[in-house]
Design a protein that fits this description.
7-stranded mixed β-sheet
Length: 766
């Protein structure tokens, strides 16, 4: 409610504001609009201020990030917030700032007395609501009172009440109404008290430094530090100017690995104690071994250094080891960050009790979520959450029964897809809903599932599920502030995500680490300077995992992976899926000459319609049964429209075709009623239709999945009569010089350069 023009007694919040910022007028600031940029500018420390101007070289960017106005008050950011968020944020802000600023000790004591006397007047002024609102106001006052103490019996009874309420809600599959901000405060308070006792009487700076949560050799401590050193500037300049020091190493397990370093430091030695101690036993139990496996150790060492990593050798055999590795890294990061915050809370409490200034303690971002994991289906999210819960080894797992119901496998899934290939069964086992999002909130002894995004530590979502939250491009409903402080972004099964909609991935990465539009109750005095300056994207680690490399994944790696610790790309060596072809049919690879990448699609289409299709049409006059495979859906629509315009005898099967439509099309094709089937890669990915009677296989464009090539060519053998002549079968594949990644996976790494660079434009494999 805006302040009245009539003279009145200042409220408790206004007096508290005068105590902390005596030179400001809270009444005037309350009537101003919320200016988050000004609040961020005021919160940047002098030691960190100006770092961005040395890294960002454009005048516009420098002006945008250096905007600051000392006339604005922090109070204005909390006036328009909801009551509970306002009280929580304000109490955290006051608890973290030094108390005596700009006022004498006598004035401070008078203000404190006025605050005590006016506390009841302020609560009465905001009443006129219901009993529930009165209890909310009393609860907020209890949270804002820094001097209030709770006995251990009362805390135990309240915890038991919360557990009972959660059990009831969990049984009904409804999100509980427990105030987890209060749970956080109590949990942090208990840990703070323990830390205070352990460090009581220890005023020696060296001893205090030795008791830090992070070890001196910990990579996370160095990466997330609020560092303004010359080394940090060199790393940042190397990333912004894309001047990496590259080197190729040969790993005994992974083979060739390309390292892109921001400074000339060579290969880092692994951290000897990378895990929190309380994670060691749960990890060994989950991994069913006493340590990392031979495959896991190099991968964990790379991601533990907070490099951006892209690994394109994912397989179903190694799936369990890969997910365990990055789940361990994610929860290890969360636990270290939470321990750092608790340590700093203890320092603040100790300094306030002694009447001293604790100095700058910056340990967080704008919002709470730190880890984002993107996977395509609920079955993948189910596996990851289960591993995170085992690693957390919490005493309580809230909303776990609801999670089992909504994400777990059903009884019908066991017998489904038995006639499909093995990789299809493994991909589509369990719950394959692709629209989901779930938050995990970690406490000291409790893990809550389905937590609100702004109260979560880890977010797990599908691209479409997250896009439904962030909103459409240009739409009114946009909220992606919860992505502003993501420190680790993991995208698993990129090859499956490419079969969905990769535009959603690009949109999500464009929203990561942006300055939030609202404060969301954050404590600006605890936010790291590089986050305030809009440089969080250079501290975010991105991990991309796929079965193979594509231009889309490579583009994401080149343009959106900007960690100042450098990059790492594992190169895969392919033997070629062509070796799995058993059908005795000549396989002809024809290179289409294209001038530029931007013209490749048009020139491929022109070559196909003007040169190749007439030749194929001559063959179908005597023998029909031709399947035209198209990888891109845009090319699929283009070819389909051309065939319709020229009245070809064909039917199109895409991922949008119904099961009955596909069945009728395959029946007519096998009976010879149709000459062509136009078949998309996504249709093959989602359905694996067994097309019978194929005599001629034409690849308008090569498939992204290399084993699809051998599958489709072998259909000519399995779908025809045993006595069919090999002379009546043929396979033709078209490619361009920009299809290097596709052709390498099909013909093998050794032959790819010959097919791309030789003067010959046609090669035949038999």
């Amino acid at each position: 409610m805006p302040p009245s023009k009539k003279s009145r007694r200042p409220t408790r919040r206004e007096l508290q504001q005068l105590k902390e910022y005596g030179e400001l007028d809270p009444l005037n600031s309350m009537m101003r609009d919320n200016d988050l940029d000004a609040l961020i500018g005021n919160a940047i420390s002098r030691s960190g201020y100006g770092r961005l101007s040395r890294a960002v070289h454009t005048v516009q960017e420098r002006a945008r990030h250096s905007k600051s106005n000392a006339e604005d008050s922090l109070l204005s950011s909390f006036v328009k917030a909801p009551k509970r968020a306002k009280a929580n944020a304000y109490s955290k802000l006051l608890g973290s700032l030094p108390t005596k600023q700009g006022m004498s000790s006598r004035e401070n004591s008078l203000v404190e007395r006025e605050i005590r006397e006016s506390s009841e007047d302020e609560s009465a002024e905001e009443i006129g609501l219901g009993d529930d609102d009165v209890s909310d106001a009393e609860e907020m006052q209890g949270q804002m009172d820094d001097n209030s103490d709770r006995s251990s019996d009362e805390a135990t009874m309240q915890s038991a009440d919360e557990d009972g309420a959660e059990s009831k809600s969990d049984a009904e599959y409804e999100v509980d109404q427990v105030d987890y901000d209060d749970l956080d405060d109590r949990s942090d308070g208990e840990d703070t008290a323990k830390m205070q006792e352990s460090t009581k009487g220890d005023d020696d700076e060296d001893k205090d430094d030795a008791a830090e949560v992070y070890e001196s050799g910990d990579f996370m401590a160095a990466h997330m530090a609020d560092d303004d050193s010359e080394m940090a500037h060199k790393k940042l300049a190397a990333v912004t100017q894309k001047k990496y020091s590259s080197m190729l190493i040969e790993d005994p397990v992974y083979g060739p690995v390309a390292c892109y370093n921001t400074i000339d430091e060579g290969v880092k030695e692994p951290n000897q104690r990378p895990l929190k101690q309380r994670l060691v036993k749960p990890f060994h139990k989950l991994n069913k071994s006493g340590d990392f496996t031979e495959f896991q150790r190099p991968l964990f060492n790379w991601i533990d250094q907070y490099r951006d990593v892209v690994y394109s050798g994912r397989s179903f055999d190694k799936e369990d080891e890969i997910t365990t590795t990055y789940a361990l890294h994610a929860i290890n990061h969360i636990m270290k960050a939470r321990d750092r915050e608790r340590k700093n809370n203890a320092k603040l409490a100790k300094a306030q009790a002694a009447g001293k200034d604790a100095g700058e303690l910056r340990d967080r971002g704008f919002t709470r979520p730190r880890v984002l994991i993107i996977v395509p289906f609920r079955n993948s999210a189910y596996t990851i959450v289960k591993k995170l819960l085992k690693l957390a080894s919490a005493d309580q797992e809230l909303n776990s029964s609801r999670f089992e119901k909504e994400y777990g496998p059903s009884e019908d899934d066991a017998d489904a897809n038995k006639r499909k290939p093995v990789d299809y069964q493994q991909t589509f086992a369990g719950n394959i809903d692709d629209a989901f999002r779930i938050g995990l909130q970690l406490h000291h002894r409790t893990v809550k599932l389905y937590s609100e995004f702004y109260r979560s530590d880890i977010l797990i979502a599908s691209p479409i599920g997250l896009r439904m939250t962030t909103g459409a491009q240009g739409g009114d409903r946009k909220d992606f502030d919860f992505l502003s402080s993501i420190e680790i972004a993991i995208v698993d099964q990129c090859d499956v995500l490419l079969m969905q909609n990769w535009d959603h991935i690009a949109h999500i990465f464009s929203c990561l680490n942006a300055i939030p539009k609202k404060d969301h109750g954050c404590d600006f005095s605890r936010i790291r300077n590089w986050a305030l300056e809009g440089m969080s994207q250079y501290r975010r680690q991105t991990i991309l995992i796929s079965q193979y490399m594509t231009p889309e994944i490579q583009g994401l790696f080149n343009n959106n992976c900007r960690s100042i610790e450098g990059k790492l790309r594992v190169k895969s060596i392919y033997g070629g899926s062509i070796t799995s072809v058993v059908a005795k049919a000549p396989q002809v690879f024809k290179r289409v000459a294209v001038s530029r990448l931007s013209f490749a699609a048009d020139e491929r289409f022109a070559h196909f319609t003007e040169n190749s299709l007439p030749e194929i049409e001559r063959l179908t006059k005597t023998t029909k049964h031709t399947v035209i495979f198209v990888s891109s859906y845009f090319d699929f629509v283009r070819v389909r429209n051309y065939l319709r315009e020229k009245d070809f005898s064909f039917v199109a099967i895409s991922e949008y075709s119904t099961r009955s439509e596909a069945m009728n099309a395959r029946r007519q094709f096998h009976a010879g009623e149709l000459s062509y089937i136009l078949y998309s890669e996504r249709a093959h990915f989602y359905h694996r239709y067994p097309i019978k009677g194929i005599h001629h296989m034409v690849f308008y464009s090569l498939p992204e999945h290399p084993h699809y090539y051998s599958e489709l060519v072998n259909l000519m053998l399995t779908s025809n009569t045993p006595n069919i002549s090999a002379d009546s079968l043929s396979c033709t594949a078209f490619y361009t010089k920009y299809d290097q990644l596709k052709i390498e996976r099909i013909v093998g790494t050794k032959l790819v350069s010959q097919l791309l660079n030789s003067e010959r434009a046609q090669y035949t494999f038999t």
